[in-house]
Amino acid sequence: MSGGKKSQPDRLQSFDDGAYERPNQPYTCGNACEGVFCLLGPSPKGDCQADRECQPKANKAGKWICGRSNGRGGKCENGPTADGECCNEIPPCSPEPSLRVRRGRFVAWCAAASIGAIALMLSSGWRDTVLSPGPMTQKHAQILSEQNPDSSHCASCHAAGDVGLSQWAVASIAPGKVLGETQSEKCLKCHGEKMNVATALLPHNLTSEEAFAMTAAACLRLGRTPPNPDRAANAEIACSACHREHHGALHNLSAVSNTQCASCHQDDFDQFAAAHPELGEFPYRRRTRIVFDHLTHMAQHYPASKNPNGQVASFECRQCHLQSSDGSITSVLSYESTCASCHDEKIQQSFGDGLALLQLPMIDVAALRSEKLDIGEWPAAAATEFDGELPNLTRALLSTDPFARSAVEHFGTGFEFLDVDPSDIDDVESVHDIAWGIKYLIYDMVEQGPPALAARLEKAMGTKLPDETARNLTGHISPEAIKQLQRAWFPNLKAEVEARRAGRPIPAARQRPDAVSVNSAATGWVRDDSDYSLRYRPTGHASDFMKSWIATATESNLATLSDDFNALWNQLSSSTSNGLCITCHSVDQGKTASDGTGYGKLNVHWRGRDSESTSESVGKSFTKFSHDPHLILPGLQDCTSCHAFDETASSANSYSQPDPYIFESSFQPMAKAGCASCHNGSPESAGSNCTQCHNYHVEHLP
Amino acid sequence: MQRSSITGLLAAGVILFLAVSLIRNHAATHPSAFTSGYILIASVFFLALFNLRKKLSFLPLGRASTWMQLHIYVGIIAMAIFGMHVGWRPPNGILESCLFMLFMMTSLNGIIGLYLTRTVPRRLSKLREEIIYERIPQFRTQVRNEAHSVVVSLVSDFPSETIADYYTLRLTEYFVKPRSFFYFLNPTSRLRNTLRNELSNLQRYCSESELVAGERLSRLIDKRDDLDYHQALQGALKWWMFLHIGLTYALVSVATLHAIMAHAFRGNVL
Q1: How many domains, in total, are found in chain B?
Q2: Which residue of A has its CA nearest to B92?
Q3: Which residues from A are below 8 Å from B261, CB to CB?
Q4: Contact between A550 and A394 (Cβ < 8 Å)
Q5: Statement to judge: residues B44 and B139 lie in one domain
Q6: Interface test with A, best of B25, B225, B269 (most A CBs within 10 A)
Q7: Extents of the domains making up chain A
Q8: Is residue B80 part of a domain?
Q9: Which of A204, A258, A264, A236 is nearest to B28 (CA)?
């Protein structure tokens, strides 16, 4: 092999010998390797055609002459036989398939083997096992194994699992061909229990209107042009677009990559430090639910100057804000451990004599009789002249009685019975209707028990009160106490009411037994027969009775509140109300009402982080944050390193209107740079994935 | 590098860039695996068409060399898209693993074939003469017979046994037996050199006529080695194609099933 191609006399290969190969023919001579192959070659079917080396020809003299060509050695020595046959017989062979045929056979075998293996697999019992693109996550695998221990699991999530290859092929080719329920529909059969099915497949579970409104707001904040609203279409995204199964038992199904986010979010937010916009108002998106001015408390009530000997606690964040077991700082210490020492006395004082549920007005019964208006028996001490007021609770309870309500409306808001003109027949008739309204109310309470109160209120508001609220409205007053009240004030009440309702004359008044006041310190109820009132005096902070009445008053839309409930709300929310509840517990009003009136429902916040504002109850919002991994860092253990006070702010003014998002925070806005010092995308950083701070499935808009 | 190769590589780069861009943009509303899958199966069918083109040589379907270049560039692009399609990691399922292996083997086989078609002709052209592959068995017999006749002639003319004994002990097997399987995997001239050295060492014991015979045997050793070398290299060129086409048919079958299943079982139907 050394040296280049040389011209040698003894070359093996001669290209001018007249012979040539026929690689395209299916068979080759079986003697070719011995060098004695015939020129004729095998037939196309592989039969040997060997005969003799030449076909002798006769010359003019009739002598047979050898016909072997020079390329095959020229004329032979022996020449043809006398019969004109060649004397050199070619030995027969077993033709062999050419390389081309062998390749064709091999390829055909490969194709047949692969198609055969596929057919065998599809018709066998381990079809699903082979076709499965990989193991499922542990939870799905476990659930499906329990549901269908012996049968195919594919059909649980894929409609195609129930059919075969032919229908798969049709479904692949035919546009719009659906084999059954879509996979997302199957997902929602189980997962729909924990999410709103109507919006489950929408991007971020938001309607196009909600998504567009948020996008437009964000654009406005960032100084960009909002997108065209026509582009806001309710395009759905299948569950499997993000949640990819069959990637192993330990695969994180909920993991979403930055690339997946960027497939819709055209701005490149890949690097938090470089591309993410400033944090805006986060995390101070709304005023605090408890009216608490951090700055005032720090500067006026807990100044260092008041704490020379440790007599007054210093103003420390962790005195009130607790780190919960999951590491988040979501809970605030109880009222008793924080506020009570300073505020409890004032709250107790505010209870006064209690909140009147009922109070009989002073009525000039003689004036009524002169107009032939009979109200039956009325306590003598309260039957002298017109005086007194109708408690707002009573007024709200009377609003279901059309006559009493009309009478109250006749007098207008804030009236007192002292203003009744005995000579005015309308005034006197209105007093008559109010008196009977009160008697009907007490009759209902006696006959139906305490639930009569909630029933009346629900009828007046046209809405069903929550069960707990309805139960607490009565302050757990016993039915016996109501009956005692009735026996003390109106002993003949049942006969009177039934006679009036039947259109019969009112029975004559009987001699009343002496009234005896009933005080129940245990329940907080006080029946005062000196002024014929039934009052509830809360036993302390967080009275269920007060919360229920406030909840009832706020159950309706402010704009549609009747005068009766408006008066009740004004009383309960005033700065001098019993318990001073609304002084500290802020009241929000939604921006829009479900009925489109433009006003939302009132919402009283009873806790710093209400149960209704936790992720468990309202669902996830766009942004999430856990204090736990941050508080490990020594530099962040001082809360003010992130939450710096804005000493120029006046947060108390934020509660003069109901919108919680119009407020002045006591804290300076947080800068993105503070986060980016750790979340900067470098290998040793704390990471900068979108889903570290953002949820995809949004169930609660901020 | 030839200008056509540079142009081709540039074109392949542009096509790959466009394909990747399409996959990334299309992923906004569809799983990117579908986009890459469509491109991939179209590429596989196009690559398989090359074999059909060779069978239909009578049709004006473009020059075979153009098809060959396209086959190479589309094959390289398909490998890159395949990596994106599977996420640059082996799949978990049995069928997908089979498909993965088939694609990898076909691609690897194609790369080996590309290397062979680029290097083997150059190596063959350095040999003493050109040999038609189909005639190698015939020439091998011819060389064997010639060697035998040289020795028989020597022994019959001169009563010397040096060359004859050496032929019997060492060269008979060399001329008669085919080379081992490993020689065809890595053909070398080690045996030829050994035999020629041994024959050369015998020269001091040889008569004049034996020297002439020894020289003829040396040339025949070279011829036989050249024939084996031709068979090894030309055989490699032919046999890798066996595997490549066989694997292609299996790949097309399993890929078609995979494509049908991916559509039938896809979860993004709404």
Answers
A1: 2
A2: A134
A3: 131, 160, 168
A4: no
A5: no
A6: B269
A7: 205-275, 288-350+538-670, 353-536
A8: yes
A9: A264
Same structural domain for residues B78 and B192? no
Q: Which residues of A touch B193 (CB under 8 A)?
A: none
Distances from the Cα of A36 to the Cαs of A192, B141, B145, B146, in angstroms? Answer: 83, 10, 13, 15
Within a domain: B270: no
Task: For residue range A114-173, list pLDDT tens digits in order.
Answer: 999 999 999 988 888 899 988 899 999 888 888 776 666 788 888 888 888 888 888 888
Helix-helix angle B208-264:A165-173, to 10 degrees: 80
B149 and B55 in one domain?
A: no
Bridge partner residues of A525 (DSSP): A520, A536
Instruction: Give contacts of A115 with chain B, Cβ < 8 Å.
Output: 253
Do B117 and B217 sit in the same domain of this protein?
no
In-domain check, residue B51: yes
Closest CA to A605 of A343, A288, A299: A288
Q: How far apart are CA A131 and CA A148, in angstroms?
A: 18
Confirm whether B199 is domain-assigned. Answer: yes
* B contacts of A264 (beta carbons < 8 Å): 28
pLDDT, position A1: 37
The pLDDT tens digits for A324-355 are 776 677 667 788 888 888 888 888 888 888 88
Among candidate residues A142, A140, A139, A123, the one with its CA nearest the CA of residue A131:
A123
Integer CA distances (angstroms), A608 to A73, A292, A341, A637, A695, in order: 114, 9, 18, 22, 23
Would you put residue A431 in left (φ > 0), alpha (ψ -120 to 50) or beta?
A: alpha
CB contact under 8 A, B267 and A1: no
Interface pTM (ipTM) of the complex? 0.84
Domain identity same for B115 and B144: no
- Decide which of B26 and A72 is more confident: A72
How close does chain B come to A11, measured CA to CA in Å?
7
Q: How far apart are CA B260 and CA A174, in angstroms?
A: 11
Q: Which domain, by its residues, includes B97? A: 3-126+240-264
Judgement on whether residues B140 and B228 belong to the same structural domain of the protein = yes
Interval A162-208: pLDDT, tens: 888 888 888 888 766 777 888 899 899 889 888 888 889 998 888 88
Alpha-carbon Rg of chain A, whole angstroms? Answer: 48
Q: Which among A246, A537, A386 has a CA at the least distance from the CA of B267?
A: A246
The reply to whether B37 and B56 lie within a common domain is yes
